[in-house]
Design brief:
heterotetramer; A: alpha/beta; 2 domains; 5-stranded parallel β-sheet; 14 helices; 7 strands; C: alpha/beta; Rossmann fold; 7-stranded mixed β-sheet; 13 helices; binds thiamine diphosphate; binds magnesium ion; oxidoreductase (chains A, B); THDP-binding (chains A, B); thiamine pyrophosphate (chains A, B); Pyruvate dehydrogenase E1 component alpha subunit (chains A, B); magnesium ion binding (chains A, B)
Amino acid sequence: MVSTRTGRSTPVMEQRGTHQPTPPPAWKPRTDPAPLLPDPEPYRVLGTSRAAEADSTLLLKLYGELVRGRRYNAQATALTKQGRLAVYPSTTGQEAAEVAAAMVLQEQDWLFPSYRDTLAAVARGLDPVQALGLLRGDWHTGYDPYEHRIAPLSTPLATQLPHAVGLAHAARLKGDDVVALAMVGDGGTSEGDFHEALNFAAVWQAPVVFLVQNNGFAISVPLAKQTAAPSLAHKAVGYGMPGRLVDGNDAAAMHEVLSEAVRNARAGRGPTLVEAVTYRMDAHTNADDATRYRSDAEVETWRAHDPVALMERELTGRGLLDEQRIEAVRQDAEEFAARLRQGMNADPVLDPMDLFTHVYAEQTSQLREQAAQLRAELDAEAEAEAASGAEQER
Amino acid sequence: MVSTRTGRSTPVMEQRGTHQPTPPPAWKPRTDPAPLLPDPEPYRVLGTSRAAEADSTLLLKLYGELVRGRRYNAQATALTKQGRLAVYPSTTGQEAAEVAAAMVLQEQDWLFPSYRDTLAAVARGLDPVQALGLLRGDWHTGYDPYEHRIAPLSTPLATQLPHAVGLAHAARLKGDDVVALAMVGDGGTSEGDFHEALNFAAVWQAPVVFLVQNNGFAISVPLAKQTAAPSLAHKAVGYGMPGRLVDGNDAAAMHEVLSEAVRNARAGRGPTLVEAVTYRMDAHTNADDATRYRSDAEVETWRAHDPVALMERELTGRGLLDEQRIEAVRQDAEEFAARLRQGMNADPVLDPMDLFTHVYAEQTSQLREQAAQLRAELDAEAEAEAASGAEQER
Amino acid sequence: MSTATSTAAGRTGTKPATMAQALQRALRDSLAEDPAVHVMGEDVGTLGGVFRITDGLAKEFGEDRVTDTPLAEAGILGTAVGMAMYGLRPVVEMQFDAFAYPAFEQLISHVAKMRNRTKGAMPLPLTIRVPYGGGIGGVEHHCDSSEAYYIATPGLHVVTPATVEDAYGLLRASIASDDPVIFLEPKRLYWSKGSWNPEAPTAVEPIGKAVVRRTGRSATLITYGPSVPVCMEAAEAAQAEGWDLEVVDLRSLVPFDDETVCASVRRTGRAVVVHESGGFGGPGGEIAARVTERCFHHLEAPVLRVAGFDIPYPPPMLERHHLPGVDRILDAVARLQWESEGGLEGGSV
Amino acid sequence: MSTATSTAAGRTGTKPATMAQALQRALRDSLAEDPAVHVMGEDVGTLGGVFRITDGLAKEFGEDRVTDTPLAEAGILGTAVGMAMYGLRPVVEMQFDAFAYPAFEQLISHVAKMRNRTKGAMPLPLTIRVPYGGGIGGVEHHCDSSEAYYIATPGLHVVTPATVEDAYGLLRASIASDDPVIFLEPKRLYWSKGSWNPEAPTAVEPIGKAVVRRTGRSATLITYGPSVPVCMEAAEAAQAEGWDLEVVDLRSLVPFDDETVCASVRRTGRAVVVHESGGFGGPGGEIAARVTERCFHHLEAPVLRVAGFDIPYPPPMLERHHLPGVDRILDAVARLQWESEGGLEGGSV
Ligand SMILES: Cc1ncc(C[n+]2csc(CCOP(=O)(O)OP(=O)(O)O)c2C)c(N)n1
Ligand SMILES: Cc1ncc(C[n+]2csc(CCOP(=O)(O)OP(=O)(O)O)c2C)c(N)n1
Ligand SMILES: [Mg+2]
Ligand SMILES: [Mg+2]
C-alpha cells in the first residue's frame, strides 16, 4: 500500500467497495437558511389588508412626522438656494424610512446615521440646526453625540456600521439595555465595511439593526450596476442573520418591521438586515443634476407611490383627516420650518482657535506653537481693521 | 388637504379606503434565490453511489496528484527543519482541493493562489523550488507569473480576489477565452476584499471561480468565531451568484464541482462561489503550536476522512491499485521530492543590487544614489575580505 | 491667474481653457490612442464624474472602456490591478482624497510592490486620479491633502499639475507610464484658466522634472499643485517689499527633481517650502531636509516651511485660517535671516 | 544588549526580562486595574497572539475581555471605535504592520478625527498595537516600517519603545491615554532582554518625552524603536574613532519632544537621524527639518539621515543590506564635516 505520510493507522486492506460510511466530520451547514431569507415581495401594510390592523394613533403620529419631514426637506433645500447651507442631500421621498428609524428606538438606544440621514436625527429629537451643522460648515459634527445618542453623521460610506456593532456589543457586555440602529444606502452595501460590520454583528450576536435604504441610486449609479443580488436583503443570509425586505415608502410597514428587528435585538436574538425599497425623488444633492442619469418618467412612477400620500390615503379612508387635524399637522410643520429658518439665518459664532482645541486631549507643543501663530495673525488682523476703522473715522 | 410639497398632482379626494392598487415601482427581487442556494449537505462522490459514474482515468490521475501533493507537503515541512525554508504553511489534508483547483484549468486560464496554496501552483506545473521562493527568502515571488499564468502568492489575505476578477474581466473584454480561479481561506472570507471582489464579479458577470477552502481555522480561530452563516457557500446568494458546498477531501467531487463552475464561467454564465469543507491536519505553519487551540481527538476524526485514503479506497474497490501502479505513483512522488530537495539544497544566487532594479521601470535618481551607496559598501566589503584573505595567505 | 507658463502664453494657437477641460482632453486622447486604456470609478460613466472630468467619455468610448463601478474603492483599485496584470492600462478615479483610504491596502501592498515582487515580470501601468486639497468649501473627508502617504510608499510615482498645460501633459505622461502613478488633481484649480494649445497639446516627458515658474534672486519658494498659484502671487507681492523670489513647481514629488531644486537654492541661498498638506510628517520635511543635506554651505538661513496646520482639515467656514496664503508665505520669507547678511535688495525683517 | 537605561540597571529588585514579557505584563496590569480595558484582534485569545504578547490573558480575564475577532482589520478597528464610543478602552492588536493597512480608512477618517469632529465630546481612548519593522527574516508584508503614515495623521499619538522598561511604561501610559495611540512594537526587540523591576513597574508619564540614552559631546544620534540598540552599539564603536556620540531615544514621534532633541543638538552641534523606515518621506525628513529650523546656527554640518532604502522591504536573505547598521551610521557621522572645524577629538573624515 502506498504510504500517504499521514501517520494514519487505519488498515487500508479493510477498505473495499465504493459505499463506505465514512463519517464526514462537522461540516453540515449549522443553520437552516430558510428563516433568514427575505420574502420575495417587499412587506407592505398601507393599501393592503394588513392596514386594518394598524393602530390609528400610531398612523397619525407617523403622518405628523412624515409631513414635518417633508417640510424639513423642502426647507433645507431652500436654505441651499439662500446660501445658508453649502449642500443638502435631500430625503424627499424617503421620509417614511427616515422617521420610522428614529421612532422605533427607545431613549437609551443609539442611531448611526449616514451623511444623508439628518431627517432621522431630527426625528429622534435633535435640533435641526445642529443636525445641519456639518452641511452649514461651521463645524464637522454639529451636535454632542451623547445628548440624543446619535453618532456623528458619517460621510465615508458604510464606515459607521462597524461603530454601531462595537457600541451595541459594548453595551451588551456591560449588561445595558441598548440597541443600535445603523443606516446605510444601497451603494454603501458594496463597501468592505458593510461586510465586516454585518459579519462581526452576527458572530457577536450584537443588538444591532442594519437599515439599508435602497433608493435606487448611488449618486448616478443605478442598483443594477451596484449588485446582482436577488435583493440587498438577501445579503443577510451570508452572515447568518435574517433579512427583511420592506416597502420603504410605507411608514406603517417600516415601523412594524423595524420595531420587530429592534425587539429581537433587545431580546438577545441578534442582528437583522432590513432593506427599505424607496426612491430618492430629488437629485443626489442640490449640486447634482439628476437628469443626466435618469428619466422624468421614472421619477413620476415613484411619485404615485409617495410616502406622505400613502399615509394620507389610509387616514382619509379611515376618516381621520379632518380639517382641524390637517391644520394642526400643517401648523406644526410650518412652525418647525420657521424655527429652522430662523436658526440657520443667525450667523454661527466662530472661533478659529477651536481648530487647535480638540485635536488631542492635551495640546501638543507643536499645536501650541501653531495656535500661537494663528492667534498672532488674528490679533494683527484685528489691529489692522481697528486701525483702518479709526482711519475712516478721522 | 395638507400640501405634501411633492408637486404631486393626483387629486387626494379620489383616494379612499385602505386597498388601493398603487403600483409599487421596480422593487421585486430580480432573481429567484433558489438556484443560488447551496445544498444543505456538501457534495460528495467517493463513498457514495455517484462514485460509480466517475471516470477511472481521471480518478487515477487525481490519485497520482494527491500522493505527489502529500509527498510535497512532507518534503517542504522537512525542509523547514533543515533550515532551507523559513516557514511552511502545509496543505496536508487539503490536497484534494489544491490539486483539483489546478487540474480543472486550461492552459490559458489563471490561478490566483493565497499564501498557503503553493501545492495548487505546483500541481499547475510550476517548479516547486520557484513556488517556494517566497518562503525560502531569496525573493518575493519566486516565479514569473506569466509563465504558467499563476498570480503571485498573496500574503495579505483576500487581496488577490479582486485581482482575479479584474483579470478575468479584462480577458473577457478582449474576447479571450480565459477563466480565473481564485483561492482563499475561511478566515479570508471575513475581509472586505472578499466582499468587494465577489460583488464586482457578479455585477460584471466575470468568468471567475472563487474557491474557499474552509479548513476549520484561521490560524487559531475556529469557524464559529469567524462566521454565523449557514455555510460559507451561502454567502454567494448575497452577490447573486450560485454557491456550492463540496466535500473538500473528496478529490472526485472537487474536480466535478470546480469543473462545472469553470465551464459556466467560460460559457459566460458568470462566477461561482465554491466552499470546500476540509481540514488543516498540520499546524498553521511549522512555527505554530496547534495544541494550544484544538484537541488531538478532533484531528483524529478528520484523519479518518483523509483525501488520499478516500481515493485509495475507491481505486482499491475498483481493483485498480495493483503493485505496479502503486510503485509507479510512489516512485513519481519520490523523484519529485528528490528534485525538490536537490533544488532547495543549492544555495540561491543572490545579487543585493536587485533591491534597486525593479522598484520602477526606470531607476529614479534617488535610487541610483542609494544603489551607488550599497555598491560602494559591497565593494569595500569584498576588498576587506580579499585583504584579509591575502593576509591569511601570507 | 498667473499659473500658465510664460512660454505658453505667447505661442500661436493658444486658447484659454480650464484645468478640468485639459484633464478631460488628456483622458480622451489617451482613450483614443491606446485601446488598452480604461477609465473606471464611481460615477465616471453616465454622470461624467462629480467634477465632470470624464464628461462625455462613456458616450464616446462605450461603457466597457469608461465604467461606472460598484461603490467600493478597494474593489475598484483591486480589479484595476487585475486588469493591468492582463495588459490593460486602467485609469482609476477616486472620487475624493479621503475616499482613497479604503484602497490603501491594495495600493501599498500590491500596486506599489507588484513590479518589484515579481522582479519586473509584472509591471502595473495604472494611473490613480485623486482630486485633493481644500479651498472649495467642502465638508470633512472631502479636502484632505494626502500626499504624505503616497510619497512614503516606494514604487509609486506621485505627480501633481499646477497649470492647465501641465494638467494635460502630466496626465498623458502618467497614463503612458509603465509604473503606477498617483495623479493628484488640485480640486480648487479645476476651474482655473490658463492658455494652452488645444491643437497640439503634448505630454510632459519625462515625469520627474520640476520647472522654474518664476526666476528670482532673493530666495526660492519650493512648491507644487494648489500652492503654486499662491506662491506666484506671493512672489508678486514680495516685490513690493524688495524680495525677488524664485518659484519652483515640483510637478512630481516622486521622482523628486533634486537637480532643479538645488540649482535654484544654491543660486538664491534661501528657501521656503510651501504646501497645503499638514506640516508634521508632510512632504515639506523631506524637501527641507534633502535641500539642506545637499546645499548646506549655500544656505544663509534654515529652509523654512509654510504648510497646513497639524490638524484635521477644518470645516468650510474656518478653512481660510488653515490654508497657506500669501501673508504666511511672506512672513516666512521675512524670517529668512536677512539681517545677518546685509547688502540685500531692501531686505526687510 | 545595551537597551536598558543605565539607571535601571543598578536598582534593587531589578530582574532580566524580555520586551515581550513586559508588554504582556502591561496588558495584564491594565486589564486588572481597569474593567473598561478590552484586548481584541486576530488570534489574541486562545493562542495568545502570534508573538504570544497576549499569552494567558483570555484565560485570566475571559473571552469577553480578550477576544478573538473575525479576520478583518477594518472591522476590528471599526468595532473598537464603537466600543470606545461607549466608554470602553479597547486595545487592538494588528497582527503585523502591513495588515494594519485595511484599517486605514477607519484610522484616518474616524479614529484620528473623532475627538476633533465632535468638539471634544467623543474622545476615543484606544490603543492600536502594531508589531513593526524587520530584522526577523520575515517574508514580504511582514516587515514594514509604517510610521510615516501614522505621524502624518493629526489626532494620533505615535509611540514606540526601545527598552524593556519603556515597553511596559509606555504601553501602560498609552492605554491610559484618552487619545488614540499607535503603539509600534519593534518586532525584533520582542526577545531582547533588559533589567527592570517587575515588583513596581511604572507608566511613563507623560507620553511625549524623549530620553537621552547615552550622553556625548561630538554629535547626536536621534533615533527610536528598533534602531536605538543599533545606535547605542554605533556610539560604542565610535569611541574607538574618537567620537563621543549622544543618543536620543524619541520614545514618541507624536508628540515630538523638540526640547530634548534640540537641547542635545545645540550641545553637540551635529546630528544624524537614524531609522529603519524608508528615507524618502519618512520621519527622518521631518526630524532633520525641524532640528535645522530650530538649531540652524548651532549646526556645524547638515543634519544627516541614515534610513532604510526607498524600496519595498527586501526578502529575508537580503534584508541585512537594507537595515541601517553600525557601519552606515559611522559613515554618516564621518560625513558631518569635521575637517571644517578643527580641534575636534581625533575627528576622522
Ligand atoms: C467611502 C466613500 N466613497 C465615496 C463617497 C462619495 N459619495 C458620497 S455619496 C455617494 C453615493 C452614496 O450612495 P448610497 O450609498 O446609495 O446612498 P444615498 O446617497 O443614495 O443615500 C458617494 C459615492 C463617500 N462619501 N464615501
Ligand atoms: C490582511 C491580512 N491579515 C492578517 C494576516 C495574518 N494571517 C496570515 S494567515 C492568517 C489566517 C488565515 O486563515 P484562513 O483564511 O482560514 O486561511 P488558512 O491559513 O486556513 O489557509 C492570518 C490571520 C494576513 N496574512 N493578511
Ligand atoms: Mg442610494
Ligand atoms: Mg482556514
